[in-house]
Amino acid sequence: MGSGGAGPGRRLAGMSTHAKRERLLLADLLEAAGPQAPTLCEGWTCRDLAAHVVVRERRPDAAGGLLLKVLKERLDRAMAEYTAKPYEELIRLIRTGPPKLSVYALKQVDEAANAVEFFVHAEDVRRAQPEWSPRTLDPVFSDALWSRLEKLARLTGRRSPVGLVLRRPDGRTAVAHKGVPVVTVTGEPGELTLFCFGRQAAAAVDLEGEKESVSRLTTAQLGI
């Protein structure tokens, strides 16, 4: 996998931020899977996912459509434009990273905005393929994901139909949604991140609570 030589991907690989490592992994996974391979993003192939990643950091005028309905039409046009590009070009643009003048080119912004984004999308590709298994994340990255999840828990869990508590195997917890009855979701930080970002069915977690509450939570629309 990957695009050998001393191109942008190799330069990025020499930088140690989690976001850049996950960026390169995502590019490699997309390349290996191929443009028509499925993803966990409902209705999206790997081509669609690759176009989304590129539009998000190269078309800020359209990317706002991910959150604002008034920009949805502009986002749809940008997605159509990039989806029509050669798949190899999309992979290259992901590996290259954002333009120099982009806010994402700032290391701190890239790490804050993209470490989780690229981790989740890498798993969107991996876990849509047969015979996948959970990644073993290094402790530093796991802690980084947990730190980010603690900050985002209330946002990602705001649509939970029940009280939602996240718990690491070591006992550390975060409240994602207040309420009763309560469901406690236990797992490694990466798995909890996937759960909270709407990938409940693919997350390797244990759920503790009333059967009906667990069922409602696993089909709820979680995420940002």
Automatic annotation (TrEMBL):
Matching InterPro entries: CHP03085 (IPR017519), DinB/YfiT-like (IPR034660), Maleyloyr_isom (IPR017517), MDMPI_metal-binding (IPR024344)
Pfam families registered for this protein in UniProt: MDMPI_N
Domain (Mycothiol-dependent maleylpyruvate isomerase metal-binding) ranges: 26-132
NCBIfam families: maleylpyruvate isomerase family mycothiol-dependent enzyme, TIGR03085 family metal-binding protein
Protein name per UniProt: TIGR03085 family metal-binding protein
Organismal lineage: Bacteria, Bacillati, Actinomycetota, Actinomycetes, Kitasatosporales
